[in-house]
Amino acid sequence: MTQGRSLIICGLIVMTTAAYLLLVGRPPICACGHVELWHGAIDSGNSQHLSDWYSPSHLMHGFLFYVLGWWLLRSRPVGERLILATLVESVWEIAENSPFVIDRYRTATIALGYSGDSVLNSVSDIGFMMLGFLLARRLPVWTSVAICVGFELLTLAVIRDNLTLNVLMLLWPIDAIKAWQGAV
Question: Are 95 and 101 spatial neighbours (Cβ–Cβ below 8 Å)?
Answer without folding.
Answer: yes
